[in-house]
Amino acid sequence: MRMQEHLFKYNKKYKLELGEQLNGFELSYRTLGSINENASNIIWVCHALTGNADVADWWSGLFGKKAIFNPNEHFIICVNVIGSCYGSTGPLSINPDTKQPYYSSFPAITIRDIVGTLEILRKELKIEHINTLIGGSLGGQQALEWAIQKPNLMENLIICATNAIHSPWGVAFNETQRMAIEADPTWGDENPKAGDRGLKAARAIAMLSYRNYSTYEATQSEDDNNTTDNFKASTYQQYQGQKLLNRFNAYSYWTLSKTMDSHNLGRGRTSIENSLQRIEAYTQVIGVSSDVLFPVSEQRYITSHIKNVTYEEISSLYGHDGFLVETHKIAAAIRAFFKQKKKKKISTSI
């Protein structure tokens, strides 16, 4: 069974948190499987920074025919976020007011703005209950915000390698990447390829935070003691930069890195702790032991302030990317999570 592609068009003005607005927007999303008779099998996935709605592709260890979330039992939905470049409204989309692409004029969006669009789509689809809301990294930020805004909407909440507020360390990494984009002399041009060389460098910088010292030591060390140039680590950085460049653009990367920086569950509320306490979903928080971008201290902090919660720490060589690479470990943790829930006699359809 293949994922079905859909496009939702919202034709009203959408007011953004920071004061600007979109004169309508589009959301590209994909679904897999069918909603059952009592609509108790809906799995909603929130994707990460450069992810897309094809969750069966980038999280295939969790989603697919033989995976824990499969189309024979579940209705799986994933929406490409606004600001991105996979069919939803973003910087390269046509601004209905000017009839030209937004480019640099695309407004600043926050995690709450993204969640607001998901809410609009949810209501359009007449989904009243989400069995499980799951996301990692930027996707986890969305899932937490949504679970706070609508505490009775989702029965289960699973978040991986994410945080309650984006840290100074994370902001610094993002700012450094934006500086690399700014250094590209084409940045700011009204051209889809503007900032391409800068984006390539930015992604190479990001890889240092997605992995870690041990990852590079294990995978990029030289076999020949006489090597003086063309190091494995050098070609790896070039490869990763080009790989993203082939599928993304600098404008969306800039926009969504700013969106990630905006994440703060306590903004305009009593406190971060109080906000987390509002979550009613049965929650699993998953950390990756070697994650230097979203260190496990951040997931433990989240865990300490949610009422009905379990914590699992995955051992991985792959740092932050472990939540995408170690899907067999993530799946095992999720199975244990639902098994524990059943032991507590809390009903679930998983």
From TrEMBL:
<dbReference type="GO" id="GO:0009092">
    <property type="term" value="P:homoserine metabolic process"/>
</dbReference>
<protein>
    <recommendedName>
        <fullName>Homoserine O-acetyltransferase</fullName>
        <ecNumber>2.3.1.31</ecNumber>
    </recommendedName>
</protein>
<dbReference type="GO" id="GO:0005737">
    <property type="term" value="C:cytoplasm"/>
</dbReference>
<dbReference type="InterPro" id="IPR000073">
    <property type="entry name" value="AB_hydrolase_1"/>
</dbReference>
<keyword id="KW-0486">Methionine biosynthesis</keyword>
<keyword id="KW-0963">Cytoplasm</keyword>
<comment type="similarity">
    <text>Belongs to the AB hydrolase superfamily. MetX family.</text>
</comment>
<feature type="active site">
    <location>
        <position position="291"/>
    </location>
</feature>
<feature type="active site" description="Nucleophile">
    <location>
        <position position="137"/>
    </location>
</feature>
<dbReference type="GO" id="GO:0009086">
    <property type="term" value="P:methionine biosynthetic process"/>
</dbReference>
<keyword id="KW-0012">Acyltransferase</keyword>
<comment type="pathway">
    <text>Amino-acid biosynthesis; L-methionine biosynthesis via de novo pathway; O-acetyl-L-homoserine from L-homoserine: step 1/1.</text>
</comment>
<dbReference type="Pfam" id="PF00561">
    <property type="entry name" value="Abhydrolase_1"/>
</dbReference>
<keyword id="KW-0808">Transferase</keyword>
<feature type="active site">
    <location>
        <position position="320"/>
    </location>
</feature>
<feature type="domain" description="AB hydrolase-1">
    <location>
        <begin position="44"/>
        <end position="326"/>
    </location>
</feature>
<dbReference type="InterPro" id="IPR029058">
    <property type="entry name" value="AB_hydrolase_fold"/>
</dbReference>
<feature type="binding site">
    <location>
        <position position="321"/>
    </location>
    <ligand>
        <name>substrate</name>
    </ligand>
</feature>
<dbReference type="GO" id="GO:0004414">
    <property type="term" value="F:homoserine O-acetyltransferase activity"/>
</dbReference>
<keyword id="KW-0028">Amino-acid biosynthesis</keyword>
<comment type="function">
    <text>Transfers an acetyl group from acetyl-CoA to L-homoserine, forming acetyl-L-homoserine.</text>
</comment>
<feature type="binding site">
    <location>
        <position position="203"/>
    </location>
    <ligand>
        <name>substrate</name>
    </ligand>
</feature>
<dbReference type="InterPro" id="IPR008220">
    <property type="entry name" value="HAT_MetX-like"/>
</dbReference>
<comment type="subunit">
    <text>Homodimer.</text>
</comment>
